[in-house]
Amino acid sequence: xxxxxxxxxxxxxxxxxxxxxxxxxxxxxxxxxxxxxxxxxxxxxxxxxxxxxxxxxxxxxxxxxxxxxxxxxxxxxxxxxxxxxxxxxxxxxxxxxxxxxxxxxxxxxxxxxxxxxxxxxxxxxxxxxxxxxxxxxxxxxxxxxxxxxxxxxxxxxxxxxxxxxxxxxxxxxxxxxxxxxxxxxxxxxxxxxxxxxxxxxxxxxxxxxxxxxxxxxxxxxxxxxxxxxxxxxxxxxxxxxxxxxxxxxxxxxxxxxxxxxxxxxxxxxxxxxxxxxxxxxxxxxxxxxxxxxxxxxxxxxxxxxxxxxxxxxxxxxxxxxxxxxxxxxxxxxxxxxxxxxxxxxxxxxxxxxxxxxxxxxxxxxxxxxxxxxxxxxxxxxxxxxxxxxxxxxxxxxxxxxxxxxxxxxxxxxxxxxxxxxxxxxxxxxxxxxxxxxxxxxxxxxxxxxxxxxxxxxxxxxxxxxxxxxxxxxxxxxxxxxxxxxxxxxxxxxxxxxxxxxxxxxxxxxxxxxxxxxxxxxxxxxxxxxxxxxxxxxxxxxxxxxxxxxxxxxxxxxxxxxxxxxxxxxxxxxxxxxxxxxxxxxxxxxxxxxxxxxxxxxxxxxxxxxxxxxxxxxxxxxxxxxxxxxxxxxxxxxxxxxxxxxxxxxxxxxxxxxxxxxxxxxxxxxxxxxxxxxxxxxxxxxxxxxxxxxxxxxxxxxxxxxxxxxxxxxxxxxxxxxxxxxxxxxxxxxxxxxxxxxxxxxxxxxxxxxxxxxxxxxxxxxxxxxxxxxxxxxxxxxxxxxxxxxxxxxxxxxxxxxxxxxxxxxxxxxxxxxxxxxx
Length: 822
Fold this sequence. Notes:
Layout: H1 2-23, H2 37-47, H3 68-91, H4 96-103, H5 107-123, H6 125-135, H7 137-157, H8 161-175, H9 177-187, H10 192-199, E1 202-204, H11 213-226, H12 235-247, H13 259-267, H14 277-303, H15 307-310, H16 319-372, H17 377-405, H18 411-415, H19 417-436, H20 443-449, H21 452-461, H22 469-474, H23 478-488, H24 492-520, H25 536-541, H26 547-556, H27 558-576, H28 602-612, H29 617-633, H30 638-644, H31 647-667, H32 677-693, H33 700-708, H34 714-766, H35 778-783, H36 786-806, E2 818-820
Parallel strand pairs: 1-2
Helix pairs in contact: 1-11, 3-9, 4-5, 5-8, 6-7, 6-9, 7-8, 7-9, 11-12, 12-24, 14-16, 14-17, 14-19, 14-20, 14-21, 14-28, 16-17, 16-20, 16-21, 16-34, 17-33, 17-34, 19-20, 19-29, 23-24, 26-27, 27-33, 27-34, 28-29, 31-32, 31-34, 33-34
Membrane topology: Multi-pass membrane protein
Protein name: Polyol transporter 5
Organism: Diplodia seriata
């Protein structure tokens, strides 16, 4: 009987919650709930949404309801009017000498005309502002235009200094309304969400900012009951968490917080390593998966010295055998880019992040074991294709998994563990090659098969790690999401805060995507499309059957397209920088015998490279081992810098160094073959190249791409980014040996030095900063148009860099492109 009463009470609570949600359909529509149905229908037809701030009237003459061309035309006229205020004051300066001669006054006295104008411009707006409130903006603009024109004519016909001074002061008086009420035109014409674009600043919004405490409490209570959280999270705790999310970094003012909660909130911004055990299990899985990725890449490095001969191939002299060697080594990258990356989306949809990682680990484990027992190059090629499937799905999932489980402030540090431990895996692969290279007959088989070692702990440990809470939210499993957050955060308050803030931001994110897609489809979203759980368009974005549509939306929806452009840029830059071909500049066989040229690759062919350069096998493997160690060690500084300096800054300060070191290595090939310093200098500059690569273009691309996309497009977006990276790695791996023969060593490295410069420009113009923001707050970052971002970098950042670092003006200031309201 008690159970029946409890069930009835729970049913009543749920009914009340649904009624509350029907009245407040979304966090953004609450203000429209009181409007008449005709008014709401008009707003939906005109704007496609009720999420408007402020809410306009139902009159087409309301400036908020104007078409975009009219708003922009009005803005241009006001901007031109504002420009005239400074033009009129400055335009007279070149005429001072003529004025002093015509009016019979000194040059200094003539210059006072501009001083008087500036003084009037400072005080006249105090008159125009109340006048505009009383009579409206339009009469003021008309009076301003006519008055300024008449007074300018008066200045032109003045025959005395006093008349000229009076006319100039009147001109300033009449032209000054732009200063007084110009910004009001933006405020009274554009909605709050659009004002930042037209005022030159992009605002990072907190969607809870405009809610009163009562509204917030009502919506949190409804959220808790609707999503089945009543038996999992205390309402008081969830209310408190929502208030912390609303307050941002001013949480200290919330009196209800306990000392433990306050300390935990302070620590999450200052103490990188103060995280709960379950979070470190997540990071361990990320690190092991990354080490497996790196080991898989280098297992064939040492084996390249032996397996061609074992299969009766001679790539040193037979052209066809050179292509076989290249294709076998490139096979994992072609398979990863063509298949492995793309199956990660449906795998993530059905099995979650952990299931996809387990699947990829199975392929990585079985394929390298199979490669060790192959009897011909075709079998080896097939096994390496299977390896590519595991590598592709793993690379597209693990960084996303780490990003979704990490706290926002240190997300970059934790997600970059992917590339850091890829570098460590490369080092381990080189170490394994060195350990078994002397084993007769089967040494190359051991080198290929040794990569199974890190796959075993990954297969076991992944099931101890918590699933991504955002994946659970995507599946509408809020209790499970809360349980994951409890394991990933230090105190329950942080879990409650993050759960509610994720929900609000994801709801906003999906409304935006659904509205834009509806607009592209020529329809408007109806009132029933209010929340992520109720919006058919948004809900469909998550379904596996919508995979192709979501892929198309990578290039059609503006917010997603900008993330695609930025992530593609950083991924392409990793191949453009030359890391996978830095040792590809082969030391021609004439270093040893004057015979035919041979082209080999470093990360893949470095051992062969140094054997060709008169080094014995042990020395060649030691050099490769040293390169792998350098790649890992010099990535360590980025653990801290990626969240302090930022992703974009790390890229921009390291690309010039990579360009210069590749160019220097290329010029070293002009040193005569007989000079023993030749190889030492080439090796030195290529190691120095790795020093620049490791903290910048090494860790940033996968970190950046894993966080740039909205939740609805995160898997397919990451798949695209990783596929782009691996596809071009495969292309370089296959064709660059022949390209190097055509260009020569200096030409090849010079080409990549130039590509480094091109990549620098692309990153400077197209890649915005993402550090220290929640994944959902990045919607505000990518809401800014690429065109405006480029213009800001060219017109604001470049002049500031010139003043600060060339002219050494320490006081030079730069206006920020983004303003945070959280």
